[in-house]
Amino acid sequence: MTVSITDAWFTYRGEDTAALSGITFDVVSGTMTAVLGPLGSGTSTLCRLFAGQLVSRGALTGTIDRNGTVALLGDDPEAQLSGMTSHVGDESQLACRLYGHDPADAHRRARNLLELLGIGDLWNRRLDTLSGGQRQLVAVARILAPGPDLLVLDQPAQSLDPQMRVRLVTVLQEFCDRGGAVLITGHQTDELTRICEEVRFLDAGRLQTATPTVRSVGIWDSRPNDDATLSTMLRSQADPLLTVRDLTVDRGSSRILDGLDLDLRPGELTSVTGANGAGKSTLLRALLGLLDRSASVTGTITVSRLGEMIRLDTLPAHARSAHLGWVGQDAGLQLSAATVARELLHAAPLPPHRRRDRKRVRDHRLAAADSVLAEADLTEVADDHPFDLDVARRKDIVIASALMTETTVLLLDEPTIGRDLAAMTRLNAIIESFLNSGGAVLATTHDQRWANEFAHRRLRLIDGRARS
Amino acid sequence: MTAHSRQSGQGPTTTVGPGQNRNRTLPLILTLLGTLIVIGTYVAVLLTQPANLGVDLGYTTLWVMLGYLGGGVLLAAGTLPLIPRSVLALIPVAIALNVVIGQIIGNYTPVPLYLDSIGTVLIGVLAGPAAGAFTGIISNLIWGVTLSPSVIAFSSGAAFIGAAAGWAARLGVFRTPWTAIIVGAVAGVPAGAIGAPVAAYVFGGGLGAGTGGVVAILQATGLEMFNATFAQSMVSDIVDKALIFALAYVVIQSLPKRIVGRYEFAAHSRPRAKKSDGPDLTKQAESAQPAE
Amino acid sequence: MSHASSDMHAAVDAAEAHRPKRRLHPATELIILACSLLLVFGIPSPIVPVIILTGTVVTVTVSPAVRLREWAMTVGLLCLPTLVVLIVVQGLFYPGTDVYVLWQVGPARLSVEGLSIAVQIWLRVSALIGLCAMFGLGADSARLFDGLRRLRLPSAVAYMCASAIGLIPMIGARTRHIIEARQARGWATDSWRVRIRLLPGIVTGLVTAILLTVDQRHDVLESSGLNSNATATALQDHTDGTGQSLLRILTPLVSIGLIVASVTGSLPLPGAAQLIGGA
């Protein structure tokens, strides 16, 4: 089985510049290939080209010889589920059954794949109770079950935690050993790209012929380099901005956080790593007061503001916003306006004021929005719709909207996902300017390299406690 | 070749999709037949039925149900082939929106509104009257089969609103908020009129807390049942549809280009692109697409 | 590892093997639902919904697939408010002139005719709600898809219905998360005024995000073979013998026969007036 593409050019309908120019590429069975490129270089378009989904979206020229079936996995976990089923078991058998396989055969294949991917015990679970990473793995099982010849994965590691990535690597290697081919695209190097025999680079729709270094093409290199020293950033000795003592979160009979202690000092970035389900998001939600009633939270959360200590755990969630700025994992949930500028203007309620002061308050808000736009490097996209921009930019917009509330502590949930080198630099610049103005940042991440290089303190969440 | 045919280049095996050189006469005939049956039922009920329910409920419910449902099914069968493929993926969202908001408002709040056609109107604005009508019918059928069977009978009213939204969108009504609200209120009149016989003869005036309350009050003032239901239906539908059209206006204006760009019919509802801004904005929008 | 996993497989498979055998094929359930709708609204006697309701209750108690408590709670939640509304609208404010009044306070008068109408309408609606709740077609998208395909609806329509069912809980969950996100920015979302003010933004954000997701899902489905020419197997394993096929053909015929008999006057079921008159 091969897929060979010769001199393919593609332009999206309604656009002037070509998304892909002169792509000549062969994928042979039994190989794993990676194509990496910065945001906007055409990696997702290349995936769709292989899967044959571009015909209806624009003008395609060139020859594409495809003798075999191609299965595509996109990067958005929510969008990879078919929507036709409610349970994991049905979803993983879906492709087989729609193609007319024997039911028992479909059942067996799906079962085996789920086992190999480590999620065999999820068979009877409803799909809406799964995490993003689990959904991606269910989607992988679904597309692998009928036995395609070429598997195209767009940013597969994005939603997966380290254990899941290892499982996926095993499954992919087994797939290749049996004669399948794998193509991975993305903006970062990670465990999956490391096992690829060939790594090509894509820049502005063209495949690079020379073999440049990863950084020169604008890709973020997330491989931890053990020989580099851990960042020796100066740690501040000032009093902590946020103090958490003995934070315990119980949900039913299971204890998620167990007497956790945490200090966030001004000018410091603290990173929190840990397996999925270890409680990273729960920690952030507990700090914000957003856990539902089924979870019982005890412990003290104190914020120091202008010399005064304020107990946060007694305040309702909306009152904590003046002290804690939250940027959740899914940026789409926190965006609602039609342009970036309007998003920043209307993100937070205006402070309580009298009617006659309204104009002054509004002008103040406008000025604040302009300065935050500059700080977050969003001025040139200020009039664009947030959903017209890429995922990393959307996250930046949500960070900017958190900055609008004039908080001193930022809580970032997985800010490094899906970023190429330029987007990572932008993120670091935003964080640095925030730290320089005396704020503290707590970020959860899977990216060990980023944590090693840029965090002042590194915590790991194990057994419900934070350890350095 | 029109742009539609390019989208359906991969051709499904089901009878959906324009631009396949298909005969449009059969779908149009079915649609016309369905509409005639609904209107015929309506007129027949108005002319022949007493204004109050008798203790023996009689066969009115049978005729009303058969007429409206039968007409609705014919309408659905007729409009389905007229809907472009790319819209089919949107319709489930519209159905889900209708059901969620309609169920919350109808069952759990004492407001005499329905608010169960926001999805239908959105589809009408994005994809035209045929898609809007189809969404209205299917939405009520699904809602009825899974949660609340009483709404099945109102599917023809929902079809009308979907079609009305499509026609209004083609006239450019959704370019300004005021036209949207006014046209919505105007469209509420026939919508209320279509729904009144069902509410009256099948359900005795209304099942929702708010709507039933209004009917009760009107009956207490001496109006007969059908007239009370008719009056309530009118007022509720006028306000309801005005609100829905206003909300649809807000949503349509706030959708990103990636979505609106895919549906040519939606161009009727967006502000006319200024020549100088046009290419840059689309380029920026589309350049974001490949990275997604 | 392989022993444990194969044991687990065997246990889960054994548990699953019971599941399909107890439930009818969803196509049969849909047909029963449609016929009940016709019967309940077609035959004016209150006996019909009572029969259907008792049948439903008996099946729910006997069947291990549906739990009585859950069913009762769902039905109660939907039916009791309807009963209250009907009693108010019909019972208290029945506008007919020739009534037998039981009790009167101000403009509200509790009349026998009004009450009987209220009860009849309520019985009809409850019978249908009970059936819907028992079949639970809204719980599992794949099940509904299989039922609709078996009834020979085009796969596009079946897909739309199944997909809509799955999106309903997703919309609920996303709305909750969006409201939480607003809270984290300082909006006091517990108050209704604030919620209404945020409503346009919330709906816009919700619709945009979901439309983007669903857009990609269509590509996913096409590549998963939704429109492939191969005859698709059902998405789930259902029991579907000749008995059920026969049931699917007989039930509509019998229903239509009953209705025709009732319209022509040859069905000897008592009407409401007779039942009350006798009492």
UniProtKB/TrEMBL annotation, chain A:
SMART domains: AAA. Residues 3-229, 242-468 form the ABC transporter domain. Pfam families: ABC_tran (PF00005). GO terms for molecular function: ATP binding. PROSITE patterns: ABC_TRANSPORTER_1, ABC_TRANSPORTER_2. It comes from the Bacteria. Keywords: ATP-binding, Nucleotide-binding, Transport. This is ABC transporter ATP-binding protein. It comes from Brevibacterium sediminis. The lineage of its organism: Bacteria, Bacillati, Actinomycetota, Actinomycetes, Micrococcales.
Automatic annotation (TrEMBL), chain B:
Residues 1-20, 269-292 are annotated as: Disordered. Residues 9-20 have a biased composition (Low complexity). The chain crosses the membrane at residues 28-48, 60-80, 87-106, 118-143, 150-169, 181-203. Keywords: Kinase, Membrane, Transferase, Transmembrane, Transmembrane helix. One of its GO terms (molecular function) is kinase activity. This is Histidine kinase. It comes from Brevibacterium sediminis.
Automatic annotation (TrEMBL), chain C:
It is found in: Membrane. Signal peptide: none annotated. It comes from the Bacteria. Keywords: Cell membrane, Membrane, Transmembrane, Transmembrane helix. The chain crosses the membrane at residues 30-52, 72-94, 115-136, 156-173, 194-214, 249-269. It is a multi-pass membrane protein. Its main location: membrane. It holds the Pfam family CbiQ. PANTHER family: SLL0384 PROTEIN (PTHR34857). This is Energy-coupling factor transporter transmembrane protein EcfT. It comes from Brevibacterium sediminis. The lineage of its organism: Bacteria, Bacillati, Actinomycetota, Actinomycetes, Micrococcales.
